[in-house]
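Researcher: I'd like a structural prediction for the single chain below. Treat it as a standalone chain; there are no partners to consider.
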Amino acid sequence: MTPAPSDTAHFFPRVPGGPLLTVARGEGIHLYDRDGRAFIDGASGAAVACLGHAHPRIVEALARQAATVAFTHSSVWISEPALELSDRLAAWVPDPDARVLFTSGGSEAVDTAIKLARAYQLARGRADRFRIASREVSYHGATMGALSATGLARRRAPYGPMLAPAIRTSTSYCYRCPHGQTPDACASECAADVESAIARHDADLAAVMIEPVVGASAPGVGAPPDYFRRVAEACRIHDVLFIADEVMSGAGRTGRRLAMEHYGVWPDVVVLSKGLSGGYAPLGAVIVSGRVYDAIRQTPPGQFIHGFTYSASPLAAAVGVEVQRVIDETGLLAHVEAMGARLREALTPVARQHAMVGDVRGRGLLVGLELVADRATREPFPPATRLAQRVFEAALEQGLIVYPCAGTLPDGRGDQILLAPPYIIRAEEVDDLAARLARALTVAAATIATQTPRS
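Model: Treating it as a single chain, here is the predicted structure.
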Protein backbone atom coordinates (compact mmCIF):
# COMPACT_ATOMS: atom_id res chain seq x y z
CA MET A 1 0.00 0.00 0.00
CA THR A 2 1.64 3.19 -1.19
CA PRO A 3 0.45 6.15 0.90
CA ALA A 4 -1.92 8.47 -0.91
CA PRO A 5 -0.94 12.10 -1.49
CA SER A 6 -2.14 14.42 1.25
CA ASP A 7 -5.27 16.41 0.41
CA THR A 8 -4.12 19.27 2.67
CA ALA A 9 -3.09 21.72 -0.01
CA HIS A 10 -1.12 24.12 2.19
CA PHE A 11 0.90 21.66 4.25
CA PHE A 12 4.66 21.55 3.50
CA PRO A 13 5.62 17.87 3.94
CA ARG A 14 8.95 16.56 5.17
CA VAL A 15 9.62 15.27 1.65
CA PRO A 16 8.10 17.78 -0.79
CA GLY A 17 5.76 15.97 -3.13
CA GLY A 18 6.03 12.78 -1.10
CA PRO A 19 2.99 10.71 -0.08
CA LEU A 20 1.59 10.75 3.44
CA LEU A 21 -0.92 8.80 5.49
CA THR A 22 -3.33 10.81 7.62
CA VAL A 23 -3.28 9.60 11.20
CA ALA A 24 -6.58 9.47 13.07
CA ARG A 25 -5.52 8.10 16.45
CA GLY A 26 -3.01 5.97 18.29
CA GLU A 27 -3.34 3.37 21.01
CA GLY A 28 -0.55 1.34 22.55
CA ILE A 29 1.89 0.19 19.87
CA HIS A 30 -0.62 0.88 17.07
CA LEU A 31 -1.45 3.86 14.87
CA TYR A 32 -4.70 4.09 12.91
CA ASP A 33 -5.33 6.00 9.69
CA ARG A 34 -8.60 7.78 8.95
CA ASP A 35 -9.93 4.68 7.20
CA GLY A 36 -9.49 2.70 10.40
CA ARG A 37 -6.51 0.63 9.25
CA ALA A 38 -4.15 -0.36 12.08
CA PHE A 39 -0.36 -0.27 11.85
CA ILE A 40 2.24 -1.56 14.30
CA ASP A 41 4.47 1.43 15.02
CA GLY A 42 7.63 -0.63 14.59
CA ALA A 43 9.92 2.40 14.74
CA SER A 44 8.11 4.48 17.40
CA GLY A 45 8.03 7.16 14.70
CA ALA A 46 11.79 7.66 14.82
CA ALA A 47 12.63 5.92 18.11
CA VAL A 48 10.44 8.49 19.91
CA ALA A 49 7.10 7.03 21.09
CA CYS A 50 8.71 4.83 23.75
CA LEU A 51 5.51 4.39 25.81
CA GLY A 52 3.31 3.97 22.78
CA HIS A 53 0.31 6.13 22.02
CA ALA A 54 -2.42 7.59 24.23
CA HIS A 55 -0.77 6.36 27.44
CA PRO A 56 -3.28 7.38 30.13
CA ARG A 57 -0.73 8.56 32.67
CA ILE A 58 1.07 10.79 30.18
CA VAL A 59 -2.21 12.19 28.84
CA GLU A 60 -3.22 13.02 32.41
CA ALA A 61 0.16 14.63 33.17
CA LEU A 62 -0.16 16.80 30.07
CA ALA A 63 -3.62 17.98 31.00
CA ARG A 64 -2.68 18.58 34.63
CA GLN A 65 0.33 20.72 33.76
CA ALA A 66 -1.51 22.60 30.99
CA ALA A 67 -4.17 23.54 33.52
CA THR A 68 -1.46 24.84 35.88
CA VAL A 69 1.02 26.65 33.60
CA ALA A 70 2.09 25.58 30.12
CA PHE A 71 4.78 28.15 29.27
CA THR A 72 7.25 30.43 31.00
CA HIS A 73 10.43 31.93 29.60
CA SER A 74 13.58 30.44 31.05
CA SER A 75 15.28 33.84 31.34
CA VAL A 76 12.92 34.62 34.23
CA TRP A 77 11.25 31.47 35.51
CA ILE A 78 12.03 27.88 36.43
CA SER A 79 9.29 25.36 37.17
CA GLU A 80 9.06 22.49 39.61
CA PRO A 81 8.79 19.93 36.77
CA ALA A 82 11.99 21.27 35.18
CA LEU A 83 13.81 21.11 38.50
CA GLU A 84 12.61 17.55 39.13
CA LEU A 85 13.54 16.39 35.64
CA SER A 86 16.98 17.99 36.01
CA ASP A 87 17.54 16.01 39.20
CA ARG A 88 16.39 12.78 37.56
CA LEU A 89 18.62 13.17 34.51
CA ALA A 90 21.66 14.30 36.50
CA ALA A 91 21.34 11.09 38.53
CA TRP A 92 21.90 9.09 35.34
CA VAL A 93 25.61 9.97 35.44
CA PRO A 94 28.03 9.38 38.35
CA ASP A 95 29.00 13.06 38.62
CA PRO A 96 27.20 14.59 41.65
CA ASP A 97 27.79 18.08 40.22
CA ALA A 98 26.27 17.44 36.77
CA ARG A 99 23.92 20.06 35.35
CA VAL A 100 21.09 19.75 32.82
CA LEU A 101 20.15 22.23 30.10
CA PHE A 102 16.86 21.73 28.24
CA THR A 103 15.99 22.17 24.57
CA SER A 104 13.02 21.39 22.33
CA GLY A 105 14.61 18.46 20.50
CA GLY A 106 17.69 16.53 19.49
CA SER A 107 19.14 18.83 16.84
CA GLU A 108 18.85 21.78 19.25
CA ALA A 109 20.54 19.69 21.93
CA VAL A 110 23.43 18.80 19.60
CA ASP A 111 23.87 22.46 18.66
CA THR A 112 23.86 23.30 22.36
CA ALA A 113 26.60 20.72 23.03
CA ILE A 114 28.72 22.17 20.22
CA LYS A 115 28.37 25.68 21.67
CA LEU A 116 29.16 24.35 25.14
CA ALA A 117 32.37 22.80 23.81
CA ARG A 118 33.40 26.14 22.32
CA ALA A 119 32.50 28.01 25.52
CA TYR A 120 34.50 25.52 27.58
CA GLN A 121 37.60 25.96 25.43
CA LEU A 122 37.27 29.75 25.63
CA ALA A 123 36.98 29.45 29.40
CA ARG A 124 40.20 27.41 29.39
CA GLY A 125 41.96 30.14 27.44
CA ARG A 126 42.09 28.16 24.18
CA ALA A 127 40.43 30.50 21.70
CA ASP A 128 41.87 28.58 18.72
CA ARG A 129 39.92 25.45 19.62
CA PHE A 130 36.63 25.45 17.69
CA ARG A 131 36.44 22.29 15.59
CA ILE A 132 34.33 19.20 16.21
CA ALA A 133 35.42 15.65 15.35
CA SER A 134 32.79 13.10 14.44
CA ARG A 135 32.64 9.85 12.51
CA GLU A 136 32.27 9.12 8.81
CA VAL A 137 29.10 7.10 9.34
CA SER A 138 27.02 9.27 11.67
CA TYR A 139 23.90 11.41 11.87
CA HIS A 140 23.63 14.15 14.48
CA GLY A 141 20.67 16.25 13.34
CA ALA A 142 19.16 18.62 10.79
CA THR A 143 20.13 22.08 12.06
CA MET A 144 23.22 23.65 10.54
CA GLY A 145 25.46 22.93 13.51
CA ALA A 146 24.26 19.36 13.91
CA LEU A 147 24.45 18.75 10.17
CA SER A 148 28.02 20.07 10.16
CA ALA A 149 28.89 17.39 12.71
CA THR A 150 27.05 14.73 10.68
CA GLY A 151 29.12 12.40 8.52
CA LEU A 152 26.27 11.04 6.40
CA ALA A 153 27.05 12.45 2.96
CA ARG A 154 23.50 12.12 1.62
CA ARG A 155 22.13 14.43 4.32
CA ARG A 156 24.95 16.95 4.00
CA ALA A 157 25.29 17.20 0.22
CA PRO A 158 22.74 19.93 -0.63
CA TYR A 159 24.03 22.22 2.10
CA GLY A 160 27.75 21.47 1.89
CA PRO A 161 28.95 25.02 1.10
CA MET A 162 27.04 26.35 4.11
CA LEU A 163 28.34 23.89 6.70
CA ALA A 164 31.22 24.29 9.13
CA PRO A 165 34.17 21.97 8.42
CA ALA A 166 34.47 19.00 10.77
CA ILE A 167 37.17 16.42 11.41
CA ARG A 168 36.12 12.91 10.38
CA THR A 169 37.25 9.65 11.93
CA SER A 170 36.33 6.08 11.04
CA THR A 171 33.28 4.43 12.60
CA SER A 172 33.42 1.31 14.78
CA TYR A 173 31.40 -0.50 12.11
CA CYS A 174 32.38 -4.15 12.45
CA TYR A 175 30.18 -5.40 9.60
CA ARG A 176 32.01 -3.00 7.28
CA CYS A 177 35.26 -2.53 9.16
CA PRO A 178 37.00 0.52 7.64
CA HIS A 179 40.34 -1.05 8.59
CA GLY A 180 39.70 -4.42 6.97
CA GLN A 181 39.72 -6.37 10.22
CA THR A 182 37.52 -9.19 11.45
CA PRO A 183 36.15 -9.34 15.02
CA ASP A 184 38.68 -12.05 15.87
CA ALA A 185 41.61 -9.91 14.73
CA CYS A 186 40.27 -6.55 15.87
CA ALA A 187 42.74 -4.39 17.75
CA SER A 188 40.33 -1.44 17.90
CA GLU A 189 41.98 0.34 15.00
CA CYS A 190 38.85 2.50 14.94
CA ALA A 191 39.71 3.74 18.44
CA ALA A 192 43.30 4.35 17.35
CA ASP A 193 41.96 6.45 14.49
CA VAL A 194 40.12 8.71 16.95
CA GLU A 195 43.19 8.91 19.18
CA SER A 196 45.30 9.91 16.19
CA ALA A 197 42.83 12.58 15.08
CA ILE A 198 42.77 14.10 18.57
CA ALA A 199 46.55 14.24 18.70
CA ARG A 200 46.86 15.71 15.18
CA HIS A 201 44.30 18.43 15.85
CA ASP A 202 45.31 19.26 19.40
CA ALA A 203 45.64 22.93 18.47
CA ASP A 204 42.10 23.48 17.16
CA LEU A 205 39.90 20.59 18.34
CA ALA A 206 37.18 21.44 20.86
CA ALA A 207 35.23 18.17 21.15
CA VAL A 208 34.67 14.67 19.84
CA MET A 209 31.04 13.65 19.21
CA ILE A 210 30.02 9.98 18.90
CA GLU A 211 26.78 7.97 19.02
CA PRO A 212 27.27 5.08 21.52
CA VAL A 213 24.84 2.99 19.48
CA VAL A 214 24.37 4.40 16.00
CA GLY A 215 20.93 5.53 14.89
CA ALA A 216 19.78 6.51 11.42
CA SER A 217 23.11 6.21 9.58
CA ALA A 218 23.85 2.58 10.55
CA PRO A 219 21.15 1.47 12.97
CA GLY A 220 22.28 -0.75 15.81
CA VAL A 221 26.06 -0.41 15.28
CA GLY A 222 27.93 -0.44 18.60
CA ALA A 223 31.62 -0.51 19.42
CA PRO A 224 34.36 -2.93 20.56
CA PRO A 225 34.64 -3.34 24.36
CA ASP A 226 37.55 -0.94 24.91
CA TYR A 227 36.66 1.60 22.22
CA PHE A 228 35.03 4.25 24.40
CA ARG A 229 37.57 3.85 27.20
CA ARG A 230 40.31 4.76 24.75
CA VAL A 231 38.35 7.63 23.24
CA ALA A 232 37.52 9.08 26.65
CA GLU A 233 41.13 8.77 27.81
CA ALA A 234 42.47 10.51 24.70
CA CYS A 235 39.96 13.32 25.19
CA ARG A 236 41.00 13.68 28.84
CA ILE A 237 44.72 13.84 28.01
CA HIS A 238 44.20 16.60 25.44
CA ASP A 239 41.41 18.39 27.37
CA VAL A 240 39.00 17.84 24.48
CA LEU A 241 35.37 17.29 25.44
CA PHE A 242 33.81 13.89 24.77
CA ILE A 243 30.17 14.33 23.72
CA ALA A 244 27.92 11.27 23.61
CA ASP A 245 25.03 11.79 21.21
CA GLU A 246 22.30 9.72 22.86
CA VAL A 247 19.40 11.41 21.10
CA MET A 248 18.25 8.03 19.81
CA SER A 249 20.05 5.54 22.07
CA GLY A 250 19.36 7.25 25.41
CA ALA A 251 16.40 7.37 27.80
CA GLY A 252 16.08 3.58 27.99
CA ARG A 253 16.10 2.62 24.31
CA THR A 254 18.96 0.11 24.72
CA GLY A 255 17.74 -1.24 28.06
CA ARG A 256 19.82 1.24 30.05
CA ARG A 257 19.06 4.85 30.88
CA LEU A 258 22.10 5.75 28.81
CA ALA A 259 23.72 3.50 26.21
CA MET A 260 27.11 4.54 27.58
CA GLU A 261 26.33 2.38 30.63
CA HIS A 262 26.96 -0.68 28.48
CA TYR A 263 30.57 0.45 28.11
CA GLY A 264 31.15 1.69 31.67
CA VAL A 265 32.54 4.99 30.38
CA TRP A 266 31.22 8.47 31.12
CA PRO A 267 31.47 11.40 28.70
CA ASP A 268 31.73 15.08 29.55
CA VAL A 269 28.45 15.90 27.82
CA VAL A 270 25.42 13.73 27.01
CA VAL A 271 22.82 14.78 24.45
CA LEU A 272 19.25 13.43 24.80
CA SER A 273 15.83 13.75 23.18
CA LYS A 274 13.35 11.44 21.40
CA GLY A 275 12.26 8.93 24.08
CA LEU A 276 12.86 11.48 26.83
CA SER A 277 9.27 12.68 26.50
CA GLY A 278 7.92 9.70 24.60
CA GLY A 279 6.78 12.02 21.82
CA TYR A 280 4.12 13.67 23.96
CA ALA A 281 5.93 17.04 23.93
CA PRO A 282 9.01 18.45 22.16
CA LEU A 283 11.87 17.93 24.58
CA GLY A 284 15.65 17.57 24.49
CA ALA A 285 18.31 17.79 27.16
CA VAL A 286 22.06 18.17 27.57
CA ILE A 287 23.70 16.67 30.66
CA VAL A 288 26.92 18.58 31.41
CA SER A 289 29.64 17.46 33.79
CA GLY A 290 30.30 19.62 36.82
CA ARG A 291 33.81 20.55 35.71
CA VAL A 292 32.57 21.79 32.34
CA TYR A 293 29.76 23.75 33.97
CA ASP A 294 32.11 25.29 36.53
CA ALA A 295 34.60 26.36 33.85
CA ILE A 296 31.87 28.14 31.89
CA ARG A 297 30.15 29.58 34.98
CA GLN A 298 33.33 31.24 36.20
CA THR A 299 33.96 33.14 32.95
CA PRO A 300 32.72 36.71 32.35
CA PRO A 301 29.11 37.11 31.16
CA GLY A 302 28.77 36.67 27.43
CA GLN A 303 31.04 33.67 26.98
CA PHE A 304 28.03 31.37 26.59
CA ILE A 305 25.20 33.24 24.90
CA HIS A 306 22.57 30.65 24.15
CA GLY A 307 18.94 29.71 24.70
CA PHE A 308 15.73 28.70 22.95
CA THR A 309 12.21 30.03 23.37
CA TYR A 310 10.86 26.71 24.66
CA SER A 311 13.87 25.75 26.79
CA ALA A 312 12.72 24.21 30.10
CA SER A 313 9.06 24.42 29.09
CA PRO A 314 6.99 23.46 32.15
CA LEU A 315 4.65 21.41 29.95
CA ALA A 316 7.42 19.42 28.28
CA ALA A 317 9.28 18.95 31.57
CA ALA A 318 6.15 17.63 33.30
CA VAL A 319 5.73 15.11 30.49
CA GLY A 320 9.38 14.09 30.78
CA VAL A 321 9.04 13.54 34.51
CA GLU A 322 5.97 11.35 34.09
CA VAL A 323 7.55 9.31 31.29
CA GLN A 324 10.54 8.56 33.54
CA ARG A 325 8.24 7.68 36.44
CA VAL A 326 6.34 5.19 34.28
CA ILE A 327 9.58 3.59 33.06
CA ASP A 328 10.90 3.28 36.62
CA GLU A 329 7.70 2.12 38.30
CA THR A 330 6.84 -0.53 35.69
CA GLY A 331 10.33 -1.99 35.26
CA LEU A 332 10.46 -1.15 31.58
CA LEU A 333 14.26 -1.13 31.27
CA ALA A 334 14.44 -4.85 31.99
CA HIS A 335 11.50 -5.39 29.65
CA VAL A 336 13.30 -3.49 26.88
CA GLU A 337 16.32 -5.77 27.25
CA ALA A 338 14.15 -8.88 27.17
CA MET A 339 12.04 -7.76 24.19
CA GLY A 340 15.16 -6.59 22.34
CA ALA A 341 16.70 -10.04 22.73
CA ARG A 342 13.46 -11.63 21.57
CA LEU A 343 13.27 -9.33 18.52
CA ARG A 344 16.81 -10.16 17.42
CA GLU A 345 16.08 -13.85 17.98
CA ALA A 346 12.87 -13.59 15.92
CA LEU A 347 14.80 -11.89 13.12
CA THR A 348 17.44 -14.62 12.93
CA PRO A 349 15.32 -17.01 10.81
CA VAL A 350 14.07 -14.02 8.80
CA ALA A 351 17.67 -13.20 7.91
CA ARG A 352 18.36 -16.83 6.98
CA GLN A 353 15.35 -16.92 4.67
CA HIS A 354 16.06 -13.62 2.91
CA ALA A 355 19.39 -13.35 1.13
CA MET A 356 19.18 -9.56 1.06
CA VAL A 357 19.54 -9.36 4.87
CA GLY A 358 23.27 -9.11 5.46
CA ASP A 359 23.32 -8.22 9.16
CA VAL A 360 21.01 -7.97 12.16
CA ARG A 361 22.38 -6.07 15.15
CA GLY A 362 21.47 -3.77 18.00
CA ARG A 363 21.05 -3.16 21.72
CA GLY A 364 17.70 -3.40 23.45
CA LEU A 365 14.94 -2.12 21.20
CA LEU A 366 17.30 -0.28 18.86
CA VAL A 367 17.77 -2.85 16.10
CA GLY A 368 19.07 -2.52 12.55
CA LEU A 369 18.92 -4.73 9.48
CA GLU A 370 21.47 -4.09 6.74
CA LEU A 371 20.29 -5.03 3.26
CA VAL A 372 22.82 -6.19 0.68
CA ALA A 373 22.83 -7.34 -2.94
CA ASP A 374 25.38 -10.07 -2.17
CA ARG A 375 25.63 -11.52 1.32
CA ALA A 376 29.04 -13.07 0.71
CA THR A 377 30.71 -9.87 -0.51
CA ARG A 378 28.42 -7.48 1.42
CA GLU A 379 27.97 -5.50 -1.77
CA PRO A 380 25.24 -2.86 -1.32
CA PHE A 381 22.38 -2.37 -3.73
CA PRO A 382 22.63 0.50 -6.24
CA PRO A 383 20.84 3.62 -4.95
CA ALA A 384 18.44 3.49 -7.90
CA THR A 385 17.01 0.24 -6.53
CA ARG A 386 15.46 2.22 -3.65
CA LEU A 387 15.42 -0.97 -1.61
CA ALA A 388 14.92 0.53 1.85
CA GLN A 389 11.98 2.52 0.53
CA ARG A 390 10.55 -0.57 -1.16
CA VAL A 391 10.73 -2.49 2.12
CA PHE A 392 9.07 0.43 3.90
CA GLU A 393 6.21 0.48 1.39
CA ALA A 394 5.82 -3.30 1.48
CA ALA A 395 5.74 -3.19 5.28
CA LEU A 396 2.90 -0.65 5.16
CA GLU A 397 0.94 -3.19 3.14
CA GLN A 398 1.48 -5.61 6.02
CA GLY A 399 0.31 -3.07 8.60
CA LEU A 400 3.81 -2.32 9.88
CA ILE A 401 5.74 0.94 10.02
CA VAL A 402 9.53 0.68 9.87
CA TYR A 403 12.17 3.40 9.47
CA PRO A 404 13.99 3.17 6.13
CA CYS A 405 17.60 4.37 5.99
CA ALA A 406 19.10 4.96 2.53
CA GLY A 407 22.45 6.29 1.34
CA THR A 408 24.04 5.32 4.63
CA LEU A 409 27.55 4.63 3.28
CA PRO A 410 30.10 7.30 2.34
CA ASP A 411 29.71 6.50 -1.39
CA GLY A 412 25.95 7.14 -1.27
CA ARG A 413 24.95 3.48 -1.33
CA GLY A 414 23.58 1.51 1.59
CA ASP A 415 20.07 0.38 2.55
CA GLN A 416 19.10 -0.34 6.13
CA ILE A 417 15.96 -0.73 8.18
CA LEU A 418 15.64 0.61 11.72
CA LEU A 419 13.33 -1.13 14.17
CA ALA A 420 12.62 0.68 17.44
CA PRO A 421 9.17 -0.32 18.70
CA PRO A 422 7.68 1.12 21.89
CA TYR A 423 9.08 -0.18 25.17
CA ILE A 424 5.65 -1.55 26.08
CA ILE A 425 5.61 -4.07 23.22
CA ARG A 426 4.69 -7.60 24.33
CA ALA A 427 6.37 -10.85 23.31
CA GLU A 428 3.57 -11.91 20.96
CA GLU A 429 3.64 -8.46 19.35
CA VAL A 430 7.39 -8.78 18.78
CA ASP A 431 6.78 -12.06 16.97
CA ASP A 432 3.99 -10.48 14.92
CA LEU A 433 6.28 -7.57 13.97
CA ALA A 434 8.99 -9.96 12.77
CA ALA A 435 6.48 -12.00 10.76
CA ARG A 436 5.09 -8.91 9.05
CA LEU A 437 8.60 -7.71 8.23
CA ALA A 438 9.45 -11.12 6.76
CA ARG A 439 6.46 -10.85 4.44
CA ALA A 440 7.47 -7.32 3.46
CA LEU A 441 10.99 -8.47 2.60
CA THR A 442 9.53 -11.18 0.37
CA VAL A 443 7.43 -8.61 -1.49
CA ALA A 444 10.34 -6.16 -1.80
CA ALA A 445 12.62 -8.91 -3.13
CA ALA A 446 10.03 -9.78 -5.75
CA THR A 447 9.71 -6.17 -6.90
CA ILE A 448 13.44 -5.76 -7.49
CA ALA A 449 13.53 -9.08 -9.33
CA THR A 450 10.77 -8.06 -11.74
CA GLN A 451 11.21 -4.29 -12.08
CA THR A 452 14.06 -2.34 -13.63
CA PRO A 453 15.39 0.14 -11.05
CA ARG A 454 14.85 3.78 -11.90
CA SER A 455 18.01 5.69 -12.72
